[in-house]
Specification:
The structure holds 2 protein chains of 2 kinds. Chain A is mainly alpha-helical. Chain A is built from 3 helices and 2 strands. Chain B starts with a helix and ends with a helix. Classes of the chains: A mainly alpha, B alpha+beta. At the A-B interface, strand 2 and helix 2 of A face helix 6, strand 2, strand 3 and strand 4 of B.
Chain lengths: 108, 485
């Protein structure tokens, strides 16, 4: 619902003032960019892999995913979700280094 | 000192005697007496070592001339003994060696003496890297952190650049907008529209501006869709495939502000894409995009139109001038009274009504610079905004003639009929399910009724209704049959 205000003026013609209505993204999912949601989910998956399987590279990728998700996020999005994903990835990195302080070996 | 020299060999001889005795015992198994061995031993040695004994004898006597005879005897004995002892020792060593070699060979049969390579089999284990006290072994971690820092730096720089571009655009267009619209900039938070006079930031790369309060239109939404300069991955992807910033203008009109037609003009690529994607263009503009050369616009632009009359009406001199001058910046211009957005993919359970339509003007402009935009480039978009305002006013006056109107109405009726045909089966199913639901609800109501009398009455009423329906159906069937005959 949006509000219409009809303004009549002696010299100017009649015009209507309509307030802004943000587009409804539920009816039109193509308008929304899915990148931040996908990156958030990927970040959480990689964090869990890094924590459970003690893989350092998983934890590092999780940190990158949460950064990318933050960079692409909308202003209206909840910051708590972002922060929780970020904290989870940082904890995955810290835990994997506490358990095994050896440096990461490259895959080649 | 001389006494010590002569006494030492004697001592050594005394010590060596038991050993020699023992060895000779091993060698000679005859069981001869030990005393005889001793004499024979010395005899052997005496014979052998005469010359050196003579020499040695000569030496001590001149030295020990004034010394007593027992000392001389001692010296003789000593020299011989010395030699004896030396020989004994030499022999003993030789015998030892022989014995040991013999012993080895007999003792260890099949033993292959290998040059024990103890030195080669030493394995040097590497010290684990985390105990090495060197940061060099953590180079992968350092790389990761450097990457993260680079991403953060790029985020800050990209965000700032997008913000500067948006502000530059708004500063150059503010005057024009404020002169044409009463309300410029509304974020939608308050119930009644309030002019904030600022851009509404949706993202780090998308800025919105809502303008309203003008004759001929309900409102205008301007979206500044910049590139994702704040995302490093996107920046790297753009290096492979250059894209440019876009400005999208969506003008929604009131019902009386526009006649019924669909029209689009833009770059060939954009026209082909929009014809596939958008609902109204695919339904009303079925023909391929035509070249705009006929109307005097550059070859790079193509036209999609519902009918020729519309194209003639839209393409007046001023419009042609705008399109010719700014052809490189125009991505697409779309006028439609049946705009409902992109095509919705049909699934089971989809809405059975036609999508809602709105009279809309859509403009998509490309910002010059192909990604490397500077704030100064935003001024070049001002004439395009003038074109937008001009189009709004023009379409208010543009009216189709009688033939055109009839054609347009026929087109719309055709589209609606097609839609109903496609959804006929689905609508029938939906109606059937609704009827079944009703019956079930009624039956439940009758069952739940506690009073048997009331139950009977309700059942009878339901039966009568059913009978009436059946009779009606039969009548209809008869009528159809009569008509067919």
């Amino acid at each position: 619902m949006y509000w219409i205000t009809v303004v009549a003026h002696l010299t100017y013609p009649i015009y209507c003032l309509t307030s802004y209505k943000p587009p409804n993204t539920e009816t039109n999912p193509t308008l929304e960019d899915p990148t931040p949601d996908y990156m958030n989910l990927l970040g959480m998956i990689f964090s869990m892999c890094g924590l459970m399987l003690k893989l350092k590279w998983c934890a590092w990728i999780a940190v990158y995913c949460s950064f990318i998700s933050f960079a692409n996020s909308r202003s209206s999005e909840d910051t708590k979700q972002m922060m929780s994903s970020f904290m989870l990835s940082i904890s995955a990195v810290v835990m994997s280094y506490l358990q095994n302080p050896q440096p990461m070996s490259p895959p080649w | 000192m001389r006494h010590l020299v002569f006494l030492l060999p004697a001592l050594l001889l005394l010590l060596a005697l038991p050993d020699t005795r023992g060895r000779y015992n091993d060698d000679f198994d005859d069981g001869e007496d030990i005393a005889e061995f001793d004499d024979n031993d010395f005899a052997e040695f005496e014979d052998v070592s005469e010359d050196p004994a003579v020499d040695v004898e000569k030496e001590p006597p001149p030295r020990a001339a004034p010394s007593s005879t027992p000392i001389e005897d001692d010296e003789d004995e000593a020299t011989v003994e010395n030699e004896d002892s030396q020989d004994e020792f030499e022999d003993a060593d030789a015998q030892d060696q022989d014995m040991y070699s013999k012993y080895d060979n007999e003792e260890f049969e099949g033993y292959e003496k290998t040059n024990s390579p103890f030195k080669d089999t030493l394995i040097y284990r590497e010290v684990p890297a985390h105990l090495q006290n060197s940061w060099e072994s953590y180079y992968m971690e350092i790389l990761m952190v450097t990457g993260l820092l680079a991403y953060i730096m790029n985020y800050i720089i990209g965000k700032n650049k997008n913000s500067r571009l948006a502000q530059a655009w708004f500063n150059s267009h503010r005057e024009l907008l404020e002169s044409n619209f009463a309300l410029v900039g509304d974020d939608g938070t308050s119930k009644e529209g309030t002019s904030t006079g600022k851009l509404n930031q949706e993202n780090e790369h998308i800025y919105n501006l809502w303008c309203s309060g003008r004759v001929c239109c309900e409102g205008m939404l301007i979206q500044l869709k910049f590139l994702k300069r704040q995302d490093l991955l996107n920046v790297l992807a753009r290096m492979m495939r250059p894209v440019c910033d876009q400005v999208q203008v969506k003008v929604t009109l009131n019902d009386e502000d526009m006649d019924t037609f669909v029209f689009a003009v833009g770059s060939r690529k954009a026209m082909a894409r929009l014809q596939k994607e958008l609902q109204d263009l695919s339904e009303f503009c079925g023909d391929k995009p035509k070249s705009g050369a006929k109307y005097g616009i550059p070859e790079s632009l193509a036209i999609l139109s519902e009918m020729g009359e519309v194209t003639d009406g839209v393409m007046d001199n001023k419009m042609v001038h705008y399109l010719t001058t700014h052809a490189d910046k125009i991505e697409s211009i779309h006028f439609s009274d049946q705009f409902s957005g992109p095509k919705v993919m049909q699934e089971e359970g989809q809405p059975l009504k036609l999508p809602e339509t709105k009279k809309t003007l859509l403009f998509t402009f490309n910002v010059p610079g192909m990604g490397n935009t500077s704030p100064k480039d935003m001024d070049s978009l001002l004439p395009l905004m003038n074109m937008v305002i001009y189009s709004i006013d023009k379409l208010k006056k543009l009216r189709l003639n009688r033939e055109g109107k009839q054609k347009a109405d026929r087109n719309r009726a055709r589209v609606e009929e097609n839609f109903l045909k496609h959804t006929h089966a689905q609508r029938q199913e939906a109606a059937q399910t609704r009827r079944e639901e009703k019956k079930r609800a009624e039956k439940e109501r009758i069952m739940n009724e506690e009073d048997p009398d009331r139950q009977r009455r309700l059942e009878e009423a339901a039966q009568r209704r059913e009978q009436k329906k059946m009779e009606k159906k039969q009548m209809k069937m008869k009528q159809i049959k009569v008509k067919a005959m």
